[in-house]
Known about the structure:
The protein is of the alpha/beta class. About 40% of the residues lie in helices and about 20% in strands.
Amino acid sequence: MSIGKKVLQVQLRYNVNESDLAEQLVVGLMAQGIEVTTLFLRGKPASGMPASKAQHSHYFECGPSDLKGFRRWLIVFRLYRFLRANGFDAVIAHRFKPISMMMWLSQLFRSMVFVGVQHGIGDYDRLFRRVEAAVLISRRWKIVGVSRAVTSYLQRTVHAFSEQNTVTINNAIDINRAKSIMLSAQDARAALALPEGRLIIGSIGRLVPVKGHATLISAFSRIAEDYPDTLVAIIGEGRTRVELEALVREHGLQQRVILLGARDDALKYVKAFDIFAMPSFSEGLPLALLEALAGGRPVIGSDIDSLTAILEDCGGLQFKAGDSVDLAGKLLELIRKAPEQREAMGKAGHDYLCRMHGIEDFRFNYRNLILEMIQASGKK
């Protein structure tokens, strides 16, 4: 039934890499004989950068203002012409703006089925967006939440999203690939210029307020004096670097908190850390946390919904989001454990990851969802 079917995948911006789950979706569909086209609204690969594994790739090269106001409708018209010219059976749209544009176009393409992949929480806090979804969604749509927390948010916030048209497909990682490219603890520390013989609390994520790095630094300042052999290292770059550097200076931690900047394939360096911390205020389903579990690291995270489900099941620790005192206490709990105890926590987390977030299940679930929707639409 799948041979000869054509699927379009629409992404907001070009960001192809080996960890890209949209690419894993492409691999799963192509394995079933489905012809896949990937369309990127913004960006394109520079020389030497990877292209999508899809049979066909297209780049609209939109500027930031092209997806706002009246100019957005010019892009919708370009999408209309693209859909009309290619005769797709199904469209997968990632994140709010592509989903929104496809909801409008779905009114004109009634033989197609549509899957919207919602990666985070908060996109439907605005009343207009909720009204738009209520007016435009139809039985030819399914909205995928990348975690239980995202699906719960969608059903709780948008009256038009129900158990009938929303489904959870957990984000996943290719565990075997992740482990194959991870550097050993010694090599990872050497690559990051981090010292041997120190206990390192690590974090990976963009330097933006929602990632909560200021909470981590403040928490560490409360315990740093008593544990002089402990460091904090953060992989990531972003607009709050200046503020974070100022916070580090304020606490006199210039030699103890290291902002490492952005790194390609950051998961390679997970084993440089003895403890992995995710102090975020909001996440969809945090791949960095899953990568830490793949590396067998004990994890600690904030008590936001999307982390709670994982941390409770994998044996990680939780603290109240934004509460540096609570985080400091939980960090102490991990620091005071014997290395063998931290290793056991890491193994338990790895076992959970294999059960719940394997890449083969991820590919299977998306492939089955799309093929079932095509079949239900009457296409053979």
